[in-house]
Write a structure and sequence with these properties.
seven-stranded mixed sheet; pyruvate-formate lyase- activating enzyme; single chain; 2 domains
Length: 486
Amino acid sequence: MNINKKQGIKKILLINNFLHTGIIRNISIDPVVVRHSGQEIKTGVTFPIGLAYMGAMLKVSGYDVKIIDPIAEKVSLITIYKNSRWADAIVIPFSPYHQEDIKKYFSIFKDKVRIFVGQIAKYLSSRILEDGLADVIIDGEPELTIVDICRNWPYLNDTPGVIFVEKNGNTVTTSKRELMQNLDSIPLPLRDFTNPRNYWDLLFWGRPTAFILPSRGCAFDCIFCAQRQMNNETVRYRSAKNITDEIESIIRQTGVRSIFFHDETFNLNDTFAVGVCEEILSRNIKIRWACAGRADLIKADIVSLMKKSGCIHMTLGLESANDHILEYLQKHQKVSEIRRGLQILQKKKMAFSLQCIFGSPGENSFTINNTMNFIRETNPFFVSFNVLTPLPGSYLFELVKDKLDLRESLKDMDILHTRLSFCDYSVNDLAKIIRSAYKSYYMSFYFLKKIISEIIRNPANIFWITKTIIFQTRYFYISILKRLEV
């Protein structure tokens, strides 16, 4: 620890990852939702909800806070450096792909307390701290920890949930931070630091979108997901009142009425889902919202209530249309159960999208064709094709982490690209398969017909649809077709 740094922390800059040069890529994981957030991704530009929650907690605790999201806001290096000079401490999600840029950035501001957050940094903590890349790593849920760091710096031995280097050079990992049980006690995330039009989602055809986190954690143990591990195998819910208060606050502050519920499985708990829908309806709030869910948990009456309260779309994890692969992935559902859920959505005229994962053990041309045929039969609007990836914190990662050079391997682990194959296909073969799947779906008459039908059904959407298609075609070419070209 550099004891010569400022003893008192009063001003904190929370900043998202950025590149000094090159093409933006999404390899950053949010410190709260444990997934890509606050990034330009294939479905839009997501809000850095973890940084916004940390900023809110710091602000109510009496600290001066600034948040910068360089990618979404198109902020210049001059602005970044100016705000960095202002701060006593700088907080940034650790991203393996951006580590050289972070190293260059932090080397200029060695007089600041430099803090990493996010799921990945702890796995590289020795290298990060020994190389002097940062002063502190937050391990776990960050809102309470960041406040304690600012209060206690530079004496952190009694601060739970941190990794740091003592003055004598010893690396210290403190006790684990307990998860916050009352999520309603956390102040609503800050949103006034940026233009709300910077964030949007494909499901709303590029319209400004607000991202809300109704719950934290997941009850399932899919081997590719880190949510269960970070949330101690629990699911914690905010109250319907607290969630709806945030929706009303967003509408007042920004005018945005397109809402994406950014948690794992909105329809996991029937009582919770019904409560949120009824609270929205009781306040007569006019919004359009979308969520992620599980197909096997879909119930007709709840879908009807969701639709009545403004839900227009659900994203669902198909992963594979092969039961033995679903079993390997520990999805705890069968293809027949997924199909039944999708049939309910179709009957209720609720739009849905599917997410697929290729590359599990036993994957072959037959299993891939099964999945592609299932997609054509069930008629989702959008489909996301991904490669099985050992994301840090997942059970899959624990199986292979000792075999990996983490500093290098993690750079490409963004679910589209990987350096590790779990099946008989090579990494290059998997790249070709993902590329082919995207081309066959999105460059087909079948998908073009969907777009034309959407324009005919909602002609007022033509501007937004056109804008979205132009943006996504660019992303599709750069990140999928071009980068996966082998």
